[in-house]
């Protein structure tokens, strides 16, 4: 008996050693400065800065190391923006989201077990835009790319641009009224995200469904909460989730539902709401009618056998989860940054005032466009790309990667590197203007990443940031409150690092980089 226990321990130890072997001894590791359980966006961004300081084109950091080393995950980070662009644009092997798929599997298995609405037509692989791009699944890849193309084509249609701008404009009066009321006319600091989030959700769902959610605020407010909780639970690597996703499906089927992670039953509500909205949309539209909303375009594709029923539903769900938090937090970032830099705010205000706040297109106010892009750079709330899982053995920057390994690009790292942006710790919108005063995008700045898996919503996001900022500037002056912990402005690395919360990834909204304080004063301009 003793002999068998000894043999078991020895084989476990050997297995652990084998698991922990360094697959990439040439790739430097940068370990977080805090224990992994306390690790959060601030510490990751700090490691990006270190990667750049050491001029490393590629490095790795541990995402997870638990169960005595039996569950260990490393992320490989590409630092060089030009190389990253080349890899994500050309490579056929970096198009997976392996780390996210099980989230959808769990939610769907639960729905099927509880016989939720339309569960009978669900299939675990019909997951819309996040489907894997890989040579081993040509049909799935084709559907993923079609979902992506449909979204991007609709957003980019020049004749529709004024429609998207009008959707932003339609949010302004309630947004202004709400901000004045809760901010007690500029005397009480407020977290604008609470209001920019429903505004951004209304725009994205109006874009997708042609339904104005400000007339259905119950749906709007619920979907906002689902979206934030959904995105947090997709991105976080908590142990309970990891245990669940690693249990084989046949075994999971025996686990009583009360032991499933709490977000799994909770997220069923988002599917139900989307199915309701789909019914609402289809009261005025049927296959064969002109398709102007994204949903109508996708349903037409489904009717022609180009995608499945749940690819359509799940793409709408994915827009809820990716299209509002990102835009709303970035917009709050613009307002906070303008509050920190009053001279720049004043300059922008004067430019806009001189043109009576008329700027229908980006070219009508290059300085505003530059302020938005300088905020994406200096205030990179979305501080890295999603993780991309490798779909087949491939070479990246001289290293051989195996299927299912993870890579990502350090958006915030490149943004703050002197090599790409002179005096990176200074907030200087002018760096995005050329000698004629026109807006010019830097090749080094990639807030949406580039290539086949880059953000398909970037056109809509830019429109929202530009027009929301313009409209809010007209009504408010943004100021830091007297106790703000992101004061004073110090334009050094230390001063920049001091803006950000050091909370772990488990803190609310810390799947993104968060300022220590999102509250500002919004002082009405009319007074
Ligand atoms: C300022 C706002 C936004 C920022 C900074 C942003 C940034 C990003 C980034 C960095 C990624 C990951 C790209 C990669 O890993 O290669 C991403 C993915 C994505 N974004 Fe955005 N995004 C924003 C707004 C939006 C909007 C408005 C939509 C929808 C209309 C959207 C839809 C998506 C989707 C569906 C994905 C996943 C794409 C895929 O996996 O293939 N995003 N976004």
UniProtKB/TrEMBL annotation:
Please provide the record's keywords in A-Z order: Heme, Iron, Metal-binding, Monooxygenase, Oxidoreductase
Biological process (GO) annotations? organic acid metabolic process; xenobiotic metabolic process
- Report the cofactors: heme
Keyword Iron-sulfur on this protein?
Answer: no
Looking at the keywords, is Iron present? yes
UniProt cross-references to SUPFAM superfamilies, sorted A to Z: Cytochrome P450
| GO molecular function annotations of the record | heme binding; iron ion binding; oxidoreductase activity, acting on paired donors, with incorporation or reduction of molecular oxygen, reduced flavin or flavoprotein as one donor, and incorporation of one atom of oxygen
Task: Give the UniProt family note.
Answer: Belongs to the cytochrome P450 family.
Q: What is this protein called?
A: Cytochrome P450
Species whose genome carries this gene: Oikopleura dioica
